[in-house]
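Entry 12.
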Amino acid sequence: MDVPQLLLVGLVLSLGLVGVLVPGVPGTWLVWAGVLWWTLQERSRTAWALLVAATALLLVVQAVKWQLPPRRLRGLPVTARTGLFAGVGALLGFVLVPVLGAVPGFVGGLYLCERLRLGTHGEAWTSVRVVMRAAGTSVLVELFACLLVVAAWVGAVLAG
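Predicted 3D structure (tokens):
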């Protein structure tokens, strides 16, 4: 696969990661579609194995999301800024502490946003707990799975 196509696949995967944080955008399916596109062009054993693993993981995540409480964002202080802070925190955590750092990074980004908005530790932590109960857990599960798929794709591209 040539470099421009790899960049386009990377763009689709990045849009999928952002889409996970935006309600109503099919971020998980964009990540899967990016891996599918890469696999159909690459046609190697590694590419097909990654597609199968990504498909299985993302389907399991969709089933798990049905078991979690639904997203109830009305009346909550969830804004685009909140999603941005949480997403950047998860990405930084994922990179700094490989894989497992995404969870504390997500919560840390959410806390930082609320701390800047509200000013005190107690109010910010209370807001983080409310947001995580209402929507954060399902977003975190979906984002974590998509980060795993994207990290595996980056590893496969660099190894290939």
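Annotation: Helices lie at 3-21, 27-42, 45-67, 80-96, 102-118, 121-159. The mean pLDDT is 88.
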